Amino acid sequence: MDKQTQDVLEILEQNAKATPEEISELTRIPPAEVREMIRTLEAAGVIRSYKTIVDWDLVEGPYVYAFVQLKVSLERGHGYQKLADRICKFTEVRSLRLLSGEDYDLEFMIQGKSMKDVAFFVADKIATLDQVQNTSTHFILKTYKEDGVIVEEKEEFKRLQVSP
């Protein structure tokens, strides 16, 4: 991948709303070339999607998130892929990753309406899968940074007034 393409991808990763004209100003690539480059990257599947990061806490979000880690037994001839394909089909699963290390093999983030919904999903839909040996669920209590974006505004330090 050439440097120009990498620069365009990095800009779009930071700001999916960046226009070809804005990207052109940052990279000195003509806007028409930027448009064509983006079209080509989308068609090739390099750019998979454009994303909005929502701070649901600010709008009294109706969602609970958790990370679920799985220890699995592999099915001969399929490795992790068959189980990963099955887990990916659940709409509640937001991301799924293969991990290195000894404790857990797979980790996914789940979105639910309540902690109870998440717990029942893991118990009913995931823990019952043949290859799953063990699960560990960690509820997300607060998000400080998401996909490189700080989602919490810091309050300015205010010194309390001291009375004489």
Throw out a few tags for this protein:
flat; alpha+beta; four-stranded antiparallel sheet; single chain; 32% helix; 5 helices; 164 residues
Question: Can you give the helix content as a percent range?
Answer: 25-40%
Rounded to an integer in angstroms, the radius of gyration calculated over CA atoms is 21 Å
Name the overall outline. flat
Give the total of beta strands: 6
Proportion in β-strands: 15-25%
Order of helices and strands: HHHEHEEHEEE
Low-confidence stretches: none
Structural class: alpha+beta
Tally of separate helices: 5
Cα-to-Cα separation, first versus last residue: 66 Å
**Multimer state:** single chain
Q: Looking across the biggest beta sheet, what order are the strands in? A: 2-3-1-4
User: Biggest β-sheet: count, sense, barrel?
Assistant: 4 strands, antiparallel
Keywords: DNA-binding, Transcription, Transcription regulation
Domain HTH asnC-type: 1-81
Protein name: HTH asnC-type domain-containing protein
Organism: Methanimicrococcus hacksteinii
Question: Quick summary of this structure?
Answer:
The protein has five helices and six strands.
Give structural notes.
With 164 residues, the protein is α+β, with helices and mostly antiparallel strands. It contains five helices and six strands. The protein has helices spanning 3-14, 20-27, 31-43, 81-88, 115-126, and strands at residues 64-72, 93-98, 106-112, 132-139, 145-146, 149-150. Strands 2-3-1-4 form a four-stranded antiparallel sheet. Helix 2 packs across helix 3. The longest helix is centred in the first third of the chain and has 13 residues, at 31-43. It is flat. The mean pLDDT is 90. Residues 1-81 form the HTH asnC-type domain. Keywords: DNA-binding, Transcription, Transcription regulation. This is HTH asnC-type domain-containing protein.
